Every structure is written in structure tokens, then in C-alpha cells.
TrEMBL record:
SUPFAM superfamilies: ATPase domain of HSP90 chaperone/DNA topoisomerase II/histidine kinase, PP2C-like. InterPro entries: HATPase_C_sf (IPR036890), HATPase_dom (IPR003594), PPM-type-like_dom_sf (IPR036457), PPM-type_phosphatase-like_dom (IPR001932), Ptase_RsbX (IPR039248). It comes from the Bacteria. This is Anti-sigma regulatory factor (Ser/Thr protein kinase). The lineage of its organism: Bacteria, Pseudomonadati, Pseudomonadota, Alphaproteobacteria, Rhodospirillales. PANTHER family: PHOSPHOSERINE PHOSPHATASE RSBX. Coiled coil: none annotated.
């Protein structure tokens, strides 16, 4: 995703112009581009006016219905005591008509919001060509799973050394995250090798997949890699990691998964998988060390029920270290 800082009105115009350019290159019609421009403008202005400034993350996504565009508006302002009330037409805390926030929801094909007093606000808007109408909490739907992800390069870099991939088949989901050592083009090349090996694998054994990735990455600078497999029939979660990719399971509480020290493509003395019970409707999260791992879900009441992309956005906003590429992947099983 591309990051746009939002601190003054001139930056709103930059964000809108670039978002429309991306929509044009994606094949959005002029009507859809105009709809997108309204959404970007309204939410960007709100971020400055009500949130005291923040950032917009914007980029393409793909689900079973085709191409879509996703935007996240993140601030650390005063937050909202009642986000649902703010979505009702006529509600305003700034002396305005109070119609913009609700209108944005109606113009979006996917919309979600998370806000806590004193913690700030995060808003997700998802748009597809044509306007099917608003929905919430769907994520990027892919064969029975909702998937949300954010990848943001280190400031000043054009490419990210962090990457991810998923392989859903309805019964199970296998997902992978890689953090190529360092940052820049060589880190991105290492990550691309890991993604290619993961996508070429035919099984869902995390240790076997990680071993395959480890061997292939020897021709690169290497990196940290984690592979997670969720089997809904067996009711298990298997996790195998080398390096500092964080793996977390959320359900009634929070469980951190175990990864071994080492570097895929370099020194990895032990590659093995750990088994965990799969809680019903668990949320699985992988993130690179571009985010601090010192967070707890208790800080975010209700966040686990939000759209996966919004979950990723809130964690990115609050836990980004700011000195490296950053990636967050969130997966949830869709209700049958």
C-alpha cells in the first residue's frame, strides 16, 4: 500500500489525485473515479479536522469478485465515543451538516470503522468497479476466508522486502510471510523467491514448505519466514517459523506462536512445526518486525470482530517501528 501523510489541506489533494490515478490504471470508470474522489476527500478531511492529522494507506486488492481498491485512514486523535452515531446523517461535532461520514459508507462497497476515546480512529473504505452497495466486515473474501493485509515500504524506498501469500482451498488455509533481510530491491528479491516457492508447493505442511523456501533462498540474502496452516476439519493450527515473524492467534484471549532463531537461506539449525488447538472463529495474525511485538489485544476491545484489513491497519498505526519495511496479514474464517 502507498502511504500518504495527512496534516494539512494540500495533502488531501495529493492523496485524492494519486488515488484517482490508481483507479484509472485499474480500469475504474469515470463514475467510479468520481465516487472514489469523494470518499478519499471526505475521509482525508475528517482525519485532519477531527483526528488532528494522520495518514492514508491506499492500494489494490484482489478477492473472488475481482479487483478492488482499499483505503485506510488512520489517526491518533481523540477518537469517537459512539462511532455508530457519527455515521447517522445530521450528526456533527464540528458545526458541519454532518452528512459526510454516512455518505462515505453508502458510497463504499465495503466499510468499517474502529475508534476508541483517547486512542484515535481507523476507517476502512473498499471500492469495486460498479457500485454493489455497502457491506462490512467481509475482508478480501477468498474461498471461505476473509483476508486483510498491509505492506508498507520503509520511508524512501520504492519496494518492500516484506511480502505475504495465501493458499486457500475451502477446508484449509495456508499462509506465509517473509521479511527479506534489510530493505530495498535486494530484500524484495529475496522475498519474491520465498513467495514463488510457497505458491509452487502442493502440500500444507508448514515445516516442509519452510524447508523448501529455506533452500531456495540460499541464492539470496535470506530473511525471516513463517508459514501457518489452519485445518478446519482437523481443528488444528500448525506454525513453523525461522526468524522474527510474529504469529498470533486471537479468540477468547491471545496466543503467541513459537518461531526458531535463524535466517531462511542462511543459518537455520532447526525447522519444525508447532501444533495449536484451533479455537472456533479464531483470528490469525502474522507480522514482520517492522511492527513491535509488544502489543496485547486487551488494548483493543472489539477489534478482533472488525474487518481483517482494519485490524491490520490499527496494529500498523500503533505498532509501526518506523525504521524498516512493515507488513501485517490477518485471516479469519468466514461463517458457513
Amino acid at each position: 500500500m502507498q502511504r500518504f501523510l495527512l496534516g494539512d489541506p494540500s495533502q488531501v489533494a495529493v492523496a485524492r489525485r494519486e488515488a484517482v490515478r490508481i483507479a484509472q490504471s485499474t480500469g475504474f470508470s469515470e463514475d467510479d473515479q468520481a465516487r472514489l474522489a469523494v470518499v478519499v476527500t471526505e475521509l482525508s478531511v475528517n482525519t485532519i479536522r477531527h483526528g488532528g492529522g494522520g495518514q492514508m494507506l491506499f492500494g489494490r486488492g484482489v478477492d473472488d469478485d475481482g479487483v478492488q481498491l482499499e483505503g485506510l485512514w488512520l489517526d491518533k486523535g481523540p477518537g469517537m465515543a459512539d462511532p455508530a452515531a457519527c455515521l447517522r446523517d445530521g450528526f456533527s461535532t464540528a458545526g458541519t451538516p454532518g452528512n459526510g461520514f454516512g455518505a462515505v459508507q453508502r458510497m463504499s462497497d465495503g466499510f468499517d470503522c474502529y475508534s476508541r476515546v483517547g486512542q484515535g480512529t481507523a476507517v476502512l473504505a473498499r471500492l469495486r468497479p460498479g457500485h454493489a452497495g455497502p457491506s462490512a466486515g467481509a475482508g478480501q473474501a477468498s474461498r471461505g476466508w476473509a483476508i486483510g493485509a498491509i505492506v508498507v515500504p520503509k520511508a524512501g524506498e520504492l519496494v518492500s522486502g516484506d511480502s505475504w501469500a495465501v493458499r486457500p482451498d475451502g477446508r484449509s488455509l495456508c499462509c506465509m510471510m517473509v521479511d527479506g533481510l534489510g530493505h530495498g530491491p535486494q530484500a524484495a528479491e529475496a522475498a519474491a523467491v520465498a513467495v514463488a516457492q510457497f505458491e509452487a508447493a502442493t502440500d500444507i505442511d508448514p515445516a516442509a514448505i519452510l524447508e523448501r523456501i529455506h533452500l531456495a533462498m540460499r541464492a539470496t540474502r535470506g530473511g525471516a519466514v513463517a508459514v501457518l496452516a489452519i485445518d478446519t476439519e482437523v481443528g488444528s493450527v500448525r506454525f513453523s517459523g525461522v526468524g522474527n515473524i510474529a504469529g498470533v492467534l486471537l479468540s477468547a484471549g491471545m496466543r503467541r506462536m513459537v518461531s526458531h532463531n535463524g535466517t531462511a537461506g542462511g543459518i537455520a539449525q532447526r525447522i519444525r512445526a508447532f501444533d495449536y488447538p484451533r479455537p472456533a472463529r479464531a483470528v490469525a495474525i502474522l507480522h514482520s518486525d517492522g511492527l513491535s511485538a509488544n502489543w496485547t489485544i486487551d488494548t483493543y476491545p472489539g477489534l478482533a470482530s472488525c474487518d481483517p484489513t482494519l485490524i491490520a491497519g490499527v496494529l500498523f498505526r500503533d505498532q509501526e517501528r518506523g525504521r524498516d519495511d512493515a507488513a501485517v496479514l490477518v485471516v479469519k474464517e468466514l461463517a458457513a
